[in-house]
Design goal:
Elements: H1 6-10, E1 14-22, E2 28-34, H2 40-52, H3 57-64, H4 67-75, E3 80-82, E4 88-90, H5 97-106, H6 111-123, H7 127-144, E5 149-155, E6 161-169, E7 183-184, H8 189-198, E8 200-203, H9 214-222, E9 225-235, E10 238-248, H10 256-301, H11 311-328, E11 332-339, H12 342-349, H13 351-368, E12 374-380, E13 383-389, H14 393-409, E14 425-432, H15 441-461, E15 467-469, H16 470-482
Parallel strand pairs: 14-15
Antiparallel strand pairs: 1-2, 3-4, 5-6, 5-10, 6-7, 8-9, 9-10, 11-13, 11-14, 12-13
Helix pairs in contact: 6-7, 6-10, 7-10, 12-13, 13-14, 15-16
Length: about 475
């Protein structure tokens, strides 16, 4: 179509605004603001002629007017008068009707309305839907601004590194997000300086970039970008990233409407990222607290020297196993182990060697007791306890004897022992099939520990370096009493 003549328009009592960006079907955009409504007839005739030639003046009005111009029309009480189904003239009411009437004509929602709906959805969305909504916002921006690619970059701290985290591309346009990760200010120094200083970069023609932007020009040309715009995203006072748009294989002049729309989307995404960061930080704090609590819990239930469960953990486990044995009518065994003549060992070799011996015995117990039904704990001093659940008596005795043999076989020198030249241990065993109710568990646990302790005493009295069961201890005690 033939472009409207500027001379013809200016011969009318109107003020004309021209915008050279790409319009509908590639036409230059033109907007006429009526100064005197009494002269509307002359302008109407001119507009009708343009419409007959195929010009969509409504699209010109929508896409070609900068935001500040629309605002000035609003302030002056301007309005639109419909000439045809798609042509409007500014009269003397509200200019924002351009958007609403065009939406009515095409069935397409206004840009601000769509972004508002996406923003509302983002407030209550989960992590997965949040990513989808951000992609929808970029697709909306690309569609309404008629760009080829829209994207989000996020900066690392100090704005020295950035990564492409979201990207929308028009059909047929190649994506670049995967290759645009961890770019530093050494890769694109001029760009980073622009964003740090101005928080915006607007390039209508990549070929006209200054000489100091050689790295940037090369990167844009590599991606076949002719025009590019980047608007910073700010959280508080901190620059956290930017929203950008590219034109591929063609140039354009970015308008105030483009900037406003990009900034609107950028503000929405910045607010969303702020919520995501806050949520992630909260989760990190919770994880650190959980880890700290677990560490405190483990420290509270582990012996500081040997690293195996302590007496507190033993009490909890013994109660748990007793309840399980009662519920399933299964056996429960308790072995109490004491290192023979440990005081004399410490006196001869020193407490450091004594600590090493305790750790060695603890390690042997862990190696010998690896089944889920077996539990090892340090009872205190040189005493250890082994709980064995759901295991027959003979098997428990076999396990106890293996432990006694393994400790002596470690060959830890003990020259002051009257039993062996090496460190040895005695074990007292109590085997039971619990048949009491839970109301007497505490008392029963105490009796079980006492029975194992008596069996341990019997093992020592019988020569040490051996295992004695509580049943055998009772027999030995009877024999001693007879004598």
């Amino acid at each position: 179509m033939k472009q409207p003549e500027v001379e013809y328009l200016t011969s009318l009592p109107v003020a004309c605004l021209w915008s050279s960006g790409s319009g509908v079907e590639g036409n230059d955009k033109a907007v006429a603001l009526l100064v005197d409504d009494a002269e509307a007839g002359d302008l109407r005739q001119a507009c009708q002629q343009w419409t007959a030639d195929g010009t969509n003046l409504a699209q010109w009005l929508l896409d070609g007017v900068p935001a500040n111009k629309v605002q000035s029309w609003l302030n002056n009480g301007a309005k639109l008068e419909r000439l045809t189904t798609e042509t409007f003239v500014i009269g003397n009411s509200v200019a924002v009707v351009v958007h609403q009437q065009l939406a009515d004509q095409t069935g397409q929602k206004p840009f601000d309305q769509i972004i508002s709906e996406i923003s509302t959805a983002l407030i209550s969305s989960d992590a997965n839907h949040t990513l989808i909504h951000i992609q929808d916002a970029l697709a909306t921006l690309g569609t309404y601004c008629d760009t080829d690619r829209c994207y989000v970059f996020e900066f690392a701290e100090q704005v020295t590194e950035m990564s492409n985290t979201f990207e929308w591309c028009r059909t047929g346009i190649s994506p670049h997000m995967d290759e645009l990760q961890n770019l530093t200010d050494h890769d694109l120094p001029w760009f980073f300086e622009q964003m740090r200083t101005h928080r915006v970069m607007i390039v209508d023609d990549v070929d006209k970039l200054p000489d100091e932007a050689g790295d940037e020009r090369a990167e844009f040309q590599r991606e076949a970008i002719y025009s590019v715009i980047c608007i910073g995203m700010v959280m508080g006072e901190e620059l956290i990233g930017f929203v950008g748009c590219d034109m591929v294989d063609r140039r354009r002049k970015w308008t105030d409407i483009d900037i406003r729309r990009i900034r609107l989307v950028g503000d929405m995404i910045a607010n969303t990222l702020q919520r995501i960061y806050a949520h992630e930080e909260l989760l990190n704090v919770q994880r650190r607290l959980e880890t700290a609590n677990q560490l405190l819990q483990s420290q509270a239930t582990l012996d500081g020297l040997t690293g195996i469960p302590n007496r507190r953990a033993l009490d909890e486990r013994l109660h748990t196993e007793l309840r399980r044995a009662l519920r399933h009518q299964r056996s429960l065994s308790l072995m109490m182990l004491d290192i023979d003549h440990f005081k004399s060992f410490n006196d001869r070799y020193g407490h450091l060697k004594g600590d090493e011996a305790l750790k060695c015995v603890a390690k042997i117990l862990q190696q010998q007791c690896q089944r889920s039904t077996e539990f090892v704990a340090r009872y205190g001093g040189e005493e250890f306890v082994i709980i064995v659940a759901d295991t027959e008596f003979d098997q428990v005795v076999e396990l106890g004897n293996s432990i006694v043999e393994a400790i002596e076989a470690e060959c830890i020198s003990h020259q002051d022992s009257d039993i062996s030249s090496h460190l040895t241990a005695s074990v007292g065993l109590h085997f039971e099939r619990p048949n009491v109710d839970e109301r007497s568990i505490d008392e029963w646990v105490q009796r079980m520990v006492e029975s194992a302790d008596k069996a341990l005493y019997a093992a020592k009295m019988s020569g040490r370096n051996q295992l004695v069961s509580s049943a055998r201890a009772a027999v030995l005690s009877t024999d001693r009493n007879r004598h």
